[in-house]
Amino acid sequence: MNHPALAEKFARDFSRTTWHDETLWFVRQKRDKAIYPIPEFQELRLLASKIKDHTLSNLDNYLLQFEENARKNGVQVHWATDGEEHNQIVLDIIRNASSIKDKTGTIKMVKSKSMLTEECHLNPFLQKNGVEVVDTDLGERIVQFRNEPPSHIVMPAIHLKKEDVGETFHEHLGTPKGEKDPQALTEAARQHLRQKFIEADVALTGVNFAVAETGSFVVCTNEGNADLGVNLANVHIACMGMEKLIPKIEHLSVFIRLLARSATGQPVTTYTSHFTKPAEGKEMHIVIVDNGRTQQLGRSDFRNSLKCIRCGACMNTCPVYRRSGGHSYDFTVPGPIGAILSPNIDLHKYSSLPFASTLCGSCSDVCPVKIDIHVQLYKWRQVVSKENELPASKKWGMKGLAKMLAMPKVYDLGGKLARSALRVLPHGMTHAKGLNPWAIARELPDAPKQSFKEWYSKNKKS
Amino acid sequence: MSSREKILASVKAHKPVLIDLPTIPAFEGDGSIERFKTVLSGIGGHAIEVESKTDCQGAIDTHYSDLKSVASKLVKSSVEIDKNTSKEVLERVDLAVIEGVVGVAENGAIWVPEVNMINRALPFITQHLVLVLEKRQIVANMHEAYKKLDTVGSYGAFIAGPSKTADIEQSLVIGAHGARSMMVILYGG
């Protein structure tokens, strides 16, 4: 994939790009308003970061403690080294569940939001194996109808306008043509999905936090779709990346105070649900997934990225994400955090993502767990270069520039030539797209008569 | 080697040296009823105050006289619900009146443990939700709330206002999948 190329495609629609930019900035402002009334907000960020530091440094023991407690609670715990194994485990759980195994019709699953299952490409796998999978988060249902991936981890359909959603619902839910009122569209989805909740054999959720001390896990939603799904189906499968662990219940207080405020500017999500034991006669399963996480744990420069609680604040504030859209990252988690997670998965494929940043540092400023995102972006660039994954133009450009900067005479001469060339050459040539990609959307300043060095030697008092 | 062993061995090999766990200081704050009410109305819910728990019936009669199917252990119930009630019956509940145990002034959330839910699905599938809470159970923030809870039980949820979504163009819509409205009855002195 190539981020600049995909971003260019998104940015071609100028008014939509502007709308996207402003909408996400509005969410960033809501975040600011939500954190100012909390005097200890910065202290909470630091605490959250340190709790995660500690947990990651003792992760194997916490995983064992969590497993032991969950099993005592009657929950079945499964382990998956990668996405493929995760998908197979989920399918096996479904097929072997006592409430399902004798069913003759289609097995029906409702899902609440889980970025992990997106990462593992669970939906297509289950569908291929005859399971009906319905995403129940409104934004996710919209993109599922459209056969698109989510473009944001908290607001999956943020790249769409209400007219687009109206079209999609007209096609799939039979809403009147031209209906674009969010209230009416949401009501149509409510009616449609209530039926799905009632029919479901199995409910799958993600996990926001898993607590080692009690073997519990917490799922946060605003819509109530996780609880509706889980409490109506006979089987609950919760899929979690291993980095979701925290040591104790008391630590939840820190993260719950940070999560929704950072994500959408709400004081808390509508539902913060704590699952510990399955309801009588029902099954509860947890699938713990590695899929590259232990490798990231071993990279001291990039380990911090595992602290992420998936709030999306870094996306909402990022000037590049806001103007290039989530799909331009072509990765489950887009935005700045995605740009530091993805190279760990596939450096070759995602080599352009660490460059999808101005390194302004706004992402690190808003991160509720204080991940040094912009520093990691910079460090990934060094890795990309060392691994020979830079595009040729950038690679040779940098090499040439390094040589020239090391030779003052050549540099002086180059500067002189450039200054006069800019004065004489026609605009069409100095700004030719093929020759000067920098000038595609920018104007060069007027060339000065002399360099600073020349000015200084003329004006200095001897 | 099983995947479990493989993962645990890999974590052990890759984890950094042990870093200390920080202590969470005692964060204090405004735990007043006024703050709770203001925050709750900011997230789409609303609260009323009555003198005692027995006044709940009157409040329900006043506010929800139009709703037929009411499920509750606190007020007059028109539909019998227990933990084995079928989905079809649950689906037709108009109003659930349930008791909460701890309220959080900072975010308007109320802890509802499984034992109070009657049926795990009830607080979510009901069209409208009323949570009843004793005033003195309101604390300032989440730290105090968890401290007060003692245990999170087998299942429980902090519920803050009605179900909502802003997934279409960031326009706030109340009543996504869960309760379309949410009222809190605060009682006691």
Distinctive features:
heterodimer; A: 462 residues; alpha/beta; Fumarate Reductase Iron-sulfur Protein, Chain B, domain 2; Rossmann fold; 3 domains; six-stranded parallel beta sheet; four-stranded mixed beta sheet; 22 helices; 52% helix; globular; B: 189 residues; five-stranded parallel beta sheet; 26% helix
**What is the general shape of chain B?**
globular
CATH architecture of chain B: 3-Layer(aba) Sandwich
Low-confidence runs of chain B (pLDDT<50, min 5 residues)? Answer: none
> What is the mean predicted local confidence, pLDDT of chain A?
95
How large, in whole angstroms, is the Cα Rg of chain B? 20 Å
Q: Roughly what percent helix of chain A?
A: 40-55%
So, the CATH homologous superfamily of chain B?
Answer: NagB/RpiA/CoA transferase-like
CATH architecture of the largest domain in chain A: 3-Layer(aba) Sandwich
CATH class of chain B: Alpha Beta
Number of domains of chain B: 1
Name the assembly state. Answer: heterodimer
Strand order within the widest beta sheet of chain A: 1-10-7-4-2-3
Helix segment tally of chain B: 7
Distance between the termini of chain A: 57 Å
| Helix vs. strand class of chain A | alpha/beta
Remind me, CATH topology of the largest domain in chain A? Rossmann fold
Main sheet summary of chain B:
5 strands, parallel
